[in-house]
Amino acid sequence: MITVLAFGGGQDSTAILYKLALEPPFYKKYVKGRLIVIMCDTGDEHPATYHHIQFIKQFCKQRDIEFHFIQSGQGFHPQQWPGLLQWMEKYDGIISKAYPKSCTDNLKIKPFYNFLDNLIGKQYYHQDIHHAKSRKSFIKKYALENGKVQVLLGIAHGEESRQAKSFPHIWMANSLMRIYPLIEEGMDRRSCQEYTLSTGLPLPPPSNCLRCPFLSAIELVWLYQFHPKKLQEWIKREQAKISKWRRLGLPNEKNLGVFGRKLLPESLQAALRLYGHLTSEQLQEYKMSHGHCVLSKY
Ligand code: SF4
Fold it and tell me: Ligand 1 within 6 A of 210 CB?
């Protein structure tokens, strides 16, 4: 059998990984067969997350845990979605709170299963079909012959609404079994942080893209203070999207930005009025305790 940990690089999935590495009863309870840890790069992770991944690579290597970090150059991301910012640049598009969300599926979920299908094909069936539109035939075949692939997901206790009620594809329902160890163990985000601190191992920030439309007003101030160039790039991308659709004749009320009608410069001013007084330490403290990719269901 195969058990895969969907590693997001943040606090919840890091707590699972540490527990798997350090607590044999936890490992025995949740891992059946071979353990594979996979993280997909959105191309817009926080610098601290990329730094944490370097640590995790070493951590896994020292403990003989198989870890794969999937980046767009490897060919598992959809061609239109090499990364969050690249997608915005290529299409003069913007990921907006007001539009259906496609980024998680294209930057995290699709590359994850494209890679897994390729790995199973190569290692169990000696076939190397390496492309971003894999039909998941090897995952399906493997599950039929060996039992469903277990997928461990880092959704914390208290975030149960993020559990997907059903699978979006039949092949997934037939081939995968989702498991939520943190919910089963009653571990919320705070317990994950406390657990990690108790191990003496690094506690990463919550993982989410730097330019995510679901960030809060405080996080916008954080971005302004700590990564002003990244914020300027984002403002430029939003403006490019607005200009493109204005040229194409979309009425202003339908031509929306990252947060909707109110564009980023205006939202930033509003956020600064509310939270501009916070110190760097206060902003960092907030940032360490809040994830915002919360609308994604897994
Ligand atoms: S963190 Fe935000 S921008 Fe990144 S994939 Fe999740 S929803 Fe999309």
Answer: no
Task: Quickly tell me which residue has 């790069």 as its tokens.
Answer: 41
207 lines ligand 1 (CB under 6 A): no
What is the rounded CA–CA span in Å between residue 228 and residue 238? 15
Q: How far is CA 151 from CA 33, 116, 185, in A?
A: 12, 11, 16
Q: Kindly state the tokens that stand for 263.
A: 């564009």
Question: Nearest CA to 34 among 66, 70, 68, 69?
Answer: 66
Q: Do 163 and 227 fall within a single domain?
A: no
In a domain, 177, yes or no: yes
Pocket test for ligand 1, best of 12, 13, 40, 42 (most atoms within 8 A of CB): 42
pLDDT digits (tens, 9 = 90+) for 282-292: 999 998 877 65
Give per-residue pLDDT as tens, 146-160. Answer: 999 999 999 999 888
Q: Which of 164, 199, 234 is the last residue of a domain?
A: 199
How far apart, in whole angstroms, are the C-alpha atoms of residue 94 and residue 240?
9
Q: Are residues 176 and 256 in the same domain?
A: no
CATH of residue 173's domain is 3.40.50
CB of 42 sitting under 6 A from ligand 1: yes
Ligand 1 centroid vs 222 CA: distance in angstroms?
17
Q: Are residue 160 and residue 277 in the same domain, yes or no?
A: no
Q: How many domains does the chain have?
A: 2
Query: What is the reported pTM?
Result: 0.93
Cα(216) to centroid of ligand 1, in Å?
13
